[in-house]
Amino acid sequence: MLALTHLSMREDTEVARCSDVDVIIGGHEHTLLQSASGGTPIFKMTAEARELGRIDLNISKTSGELESIDWEVIPVTGETKEDPEFAAIYRKYERLLKELSQTVGRSRVALDARSAENRTRETNVGNMVAEAFRRATGADVALMNGGSIRADRLSVQAR
């Protein structure tokens, strides 16, 4: 069994204790890590698609058991070849994202979308998004998980 996770290394180590898990491919730390817990290998890549990880699982044709693992870190550079099949899928979603990238309003104040702020306290951008959700749905209350705010910047004040 292959476990795809977004947990801390400590939590992935707990997952590795499950007898059916053969390999864990995780994220969360945004740091290149390779470890093993009780014989279960744990692989984690960096963030922002700076590298790709390739893992080849060599499975026995007779027993179906995992025999070995080959792991390779592939840097993403301007020389990385485009995959035609992926590019076609990407273009489809790129068009949809452009539709969502339209300006829908302007703020008279700076909006705080910094990750450190939104993950630890109430911010004006979090309040704005929650209020937009509340109004759009007609709900009495709306909640916004600050970890979902991914701009990680303080917008400049509109003039």
Model description:
- The mean pLDDT is 88.
- It is extended, with a radius of gyration of 21 Å.
- It folds into two domains: 2-75, no CATH class; 103-159, no CATH class.
- It starts with a strand and ends in a 22-residue tail after the last helix.
- By secondary structure, it is an alpha/beta fold.
- It has helices at residues 9-16, 84-100, 115-118, 124-137, and strands spanning 2-4, 23-26, 33-37, 40-44, 51-59, 66-75.
- The chain has a four-stranded mixed β-sheet, with helices on one face. It has a two-stranded antiparallel ribbon with strand order 5-6.
- A hairpin with a 6-residue loop joins β5 (51-59) and β6 (66-75).
Name the descriptors.
159 residues; alpha/beta; 4-stranded mixed sheet; 6 strands; extended
Summarize the structure.
The protein is an alpha/beta fold and 159 residues long. The chain is built from four helices and six strands, in the order E-H-E-E-E-E-E-H-H-H.
Please describe the topology of this protein:
Layout: E1 2-4, H1 9-16, E2 23-26, E3 33-37, E4 40-44, E5 51-59, E6 66-75, H2 84-100, H3 115-118, H4 124-137
Parallel strand pairs: 1-2, 2-4
Antiparallel strand pairs: 3-4, 5-6
